[in-house]
Structures
1.
Amino acid sequence: MPNLPVALSIAGSEATGGAGAQVDLKTFQAHGVFGAVALTCIVSFDPKANWGHRFVPVDAQVITDQLEAITAAYRTDQLNVVKLGMLGTPGTIATVATALQSRAFGHVVLDPVLICKGQEPGAALDTDTALKEQILPLATFITPNHFETLSLSGFSRIDSVADLTEAARTIHKISGAAVLAKGGVHLSGPDAVDVYVDADTTEILSAPKVGDVQVAGAGCTLAAAVAAQLALGATPLEAAKAAKTFVTAGIRGRLTSAAPFDVVSQSAGAETLN
Ligand code: PXL
């Protein structure tokens, strides 16, 4: 029996389980990939303050310690894929960049989380620069949403699939990574359109929109599904397509709660896997 593939998530905890490391582990598990986590921060929504984010960063040394334990336990042939979610502060970005430089991973899937739904865009400015300078060059696969695609490409607006394609190409040129840029509900029309770009391929991935309200955790789920597929040996384009199918089913089967956003169900996504 070959060993299970292992994937590493470097991400934050979102206590309700709708985003972050919790989503990464559930998504890895749904794919039959063994998950390890180095936690970067702890997010607790505040139901008394409009479900705003209470954010506590994990100490840099503790992040380094977690990564030391994980990389000592799993050698490169077993753990070849890392997925990066919310890093949250410039200090954490520097710590993670250093760790990634000292251990080779075949695939570094970057979900370039700048802000979460409901946060003010201004909160992203300092992490934005650090992420671009230190993490982007290390990524092999990037999954920016509409806002992150604007930020990483420098485009002032993205209103069409053609704009999204040009912006994805720009991010590919800057980073060298495969890019899966997500139009989501920000582009009008009946379909949720994502654009995949790598050195050889530009491909439009579309699926009918499931309503026109955003569901939380979709970005985390998509990037984690890409990471899991890569750990299972898929090509980047195959991983992008399978991850889109997984997240679309997960949105369709979403979970409703007293929180203001519905969240993706990874169990519903798992039904797309055989
Ligand atoms: O969905 C982005 C995201 C990622 N990671 C953590 C989060 C959020 C949004 O709330 O809390 C930990």
2.
Amino acid sequence: MGILRIVGTPIGNLEDITLRALRTFKESDFILCEDTRVTRRLLDHYEIKTSTISYHQHSGELKVDKILTLLKEGKNLALVTDAGTPGISDPGGKLVSEARAALGDDFKIESIPGPAALTTAISIAGAGFDRFLFLGFLPHKKGRQTMLKEIIASEHSVVVYESKHRAAKFLSEMIKLEEATGISKEIIVARELTKMFESLYFGSATSVLEKLQADNNNLKGEFVILIKQNSKNKNKDEYGEE
Ligand code: SAM
């Protein structure tokens, strides 16, 4: 039985890759990629010739069967996403579960850790994120308001991923809810992490939205939004001690 290795890759800067990840790519029979063109750019940069197979959120049963067959034949596979660590807000987790269910105890899976947008953003956000709730992408329609209300009421810091089309929308929604509830949150927006236009915007939802809207370019790219815990919890450390 082959081994499935889950490999973290850069979230922007191609140098953010581990030696072990590069060796894994070279030694794998195939690399399963969310978008083969995106991963090929990384592989070309490091002159890695390993063949790629696409595996993404729309991959159906036939593709999964093909991957399982390769593992049964003893092929070693590496799984990557377009950015960061597979399994965080992308289809990686689904493949891991399906492979485990189909292949049972003989199946070996290994993690080759690397960056994630979530941890990269937290590393520069400052205090208040010893403990947090990660909600990934909020639903676009059904359930969105409920989750926004949970965020505003949360005693914990919250982290969400947003696409470029929705970062401003999210902040406008937070402003409305703040007006309705009287709760105000401190927000950090981390944009284009590790890339040329990496930027951090701090402050109230209103001031962060103003900063983003000050220049159309500020609304381009990829975003992690961090919402700090309510002030009554601010002085507690992760063990709840004052
Ligand atoms: N698996 C990835 C990870 O480890 O973070 C996340 C995949 S998810 C499909 C893509 C989302 O991650 C983007 O919409 C954005 O919210 C966030 N993201 C990815 N790269 C980023 C970057 N360089 N800067 C800010 N956010 C980023």
